[in-house]
Design brief:
mainly alpha; 3 helices
Length: 265
Amino acid sequence: MGVGSTTVEAPGLAELEAARGEAAGVDAAALAAAILDAAALEAAALAAAILENAALEAAALDAAMLDAASSDAAALDAAALDAAILEAAALDASALDIAMLEAAALDAAVMDAAALDAAALEAAAPDAAILDAAALDAAALEAAALDAAALDAAALDAATLDSAALEASALDAAALEASALDAAALDAAALDAAALDAAALDAAALEASALEAPALDAAALEAAELEASALGAAPLEGAAPEVAGLEAAVAVVGGGSDVPNASTQ
C-alpha cells in the first residue's frame, strides 16, 4: 500500500503486514545478534589460538634456552673435569718421577755405603787378625800366670790349714785338760760345800731341838698350873698322877733336861 493511495485495505491485512514487519525486525535483530556472537566467538577463538601459539613458542624458546644452557654447563663441567684430571695426572706423574728419583738416589747411597763398609771390613780384617792373635797370646800368658798363682795360693792355703789344724788340735787338748781340771775342782768344791751344808744343818737342828725342849717343858708346866688353879685343890690332887706322867713324858722328850717338878712348887 502506497502513501496517498485511495485504495482502502482490509483491517486484517494491515495487522498481518505489521506482524510480518515485526517478525522481520526480530529476525534481523536475531541474525545480527547471531552474527555478533559468531564474530565474538571467532575473535575469542582466534585470540586464544594466538595466546596458545605464543605460549607454546615461549615454552619452546625457554626449553631451547635451558637445553643450550645445560649443554654449555655440561660442556664447561666436562672441560673443567678433563683439565683437573690432566692436572692430577701430571702431578701424580711428577710425584712418581720424584719418588723414583729419590728411591734411586737412596739405593745408590745404600750401595755406596755397603761398598765402603765392605772395603773397610776387608782393610780391617788383617789388623783384626793381628789384634786377635795378640789378644789370644796375652790371654794365654795371663791364664798361665793365674794358674801358677792359684797353685802357689793353694800350697800356701794347704800349709796354713795344716798349721791351723795342729794349733786347733793343741788348743782342743789344752781346753779338754782345763775343762777336766775345772770339773774336778768343781766336784771337790761341791762335795766340800755339801759336807759343810750337812754339818751346818745338823748343828742347826740340834740347836733348835735343844731350844724347843725347854720351851715345851715350860709351856706344859704353865698349862698344868693354869688348869690346877682353875679346877681347885681337889681336882689338882686328883690330876697329880696325870701331871706327873706329863712331866715324865716331857723329861723323856727333852732328853733329861732339869725341869722343876710342878708338885714341889
